[in-house]
Amino acid sequence: MSKLYRFFLFPFYFINILSNQGYSSPTWVQEAVIYCVFPRNFSPSGDLNGVTERLEHLRQLGVNVIWLLPIHPIGQQMKKGTIGSPYCVQDYYEVDSDYGNKSDFKALIDKAHELGMKVIMDVVANHTSWDSVLMQYPEFYIQNNDNQIVPPTIEWLDVAALNYQNEKLRLYMKEMLKYWLKEFDLDGFRLDAASLIPVDFWEDLSLELREIKSDIILLGESDDPKLLTSAFDLDYTWKFEEALEHIISQGASAMPNLKAVTAYEKMAFNPGSLHLRFSDNHDKKRAIVRYGEKAALAASALIFTWDGVPLIHNGMEIGDAAETYGPALFEHMPIFWKSAEIRPEFFRFYQEIIALRKKHSALRDGTLEWIKNSDENSVVTFIRSNAKEEFMMAINFSNQPFIGYVVIENPELFEDVTPVFSHTSIEPRQLPHLALKAWEFRLFRRLIQNLH
Prior knowledge:
452 residues; 8-stranded parallel barrel
């Protein structure tokens, strides 16, 4: 096995863990199961009406929050690919005509609400397209010494960097976000590249938006502890995703690396901080491609039983392998929905593990305790618990079978509740003895009252 991946080769953020946020996040954030929709690729029609038509599918899956990638018109000047990136916004106040119109957008939100789901909209506040309507205000953009507008990074040449030292730009962006919130009854926003924008802007915006609608969610693409304390309800956990990558793709030690993630989060963030947990998104190649089918499900088993808020990305629930990353972000690459017939275990797994998560609060907000096992380089074992019940998860992050044991008191009181669980090559064993095929996972439950 490779050495422990080093998460700590950067300065820590030292924050006062006793400080309070200026607001209370709504309880539904803790209970969220977020599904990221790329409207261009989500349905055969590739528009908002196509998303609306498939909302019942998401409801049956168990999703309760829909995150829509940007729906605004895409800039054509210096665009990448055939269509261009949805993160290359031409006009923040309009809907891309390829997606439909504002009435279609409102109908989507109304239907989602009718089905008991919330909708958040992706907003790109850090940069615009080079043919944006805002280009009439060059002072809104960062410029070099020759008064030329510049991109935010040398990799993002298709977009122009906005200047948050300009107060009029700040006001414009705040009013734009308020417009979508008030006019369409959104339930919040996913805020792109949030760490590239000054903290005080997000702090002010957070308070102003919550004055309009108090129970919204703000998901920031950031892992800055200061932003999660003062502005956002939920942030990204790149270190968690990096740990999964090192464990599954590079054979890094499983439990030690995940323990390093929790140690970092405990030190850097306030108690109770919520993080988005994911193995797949539009900034990475598909997990099923990187990891393979069984390992991809093992990663999701961890995500849905660990702490934080789980994410399903655009077709993950059927084992879709159509890319949304890199060049694919700029093209039309629709979900191949027939994958559900090829990999029926995927939908069943997600549906069952979401149902377990919804039914048992210990899997949403219970404490997390590591449990020793006989091969912690390969196998991850932990307990999520509250006052009523405990869940023990065991996941084999290895391409080799595991036969060993866990160190736990009263193991005979646990009941196996693993979704789509079946043994085909290893005889089941009674805890504390444990047998797992390559990439297999098992979830066990016991009631606290049975311990007394």
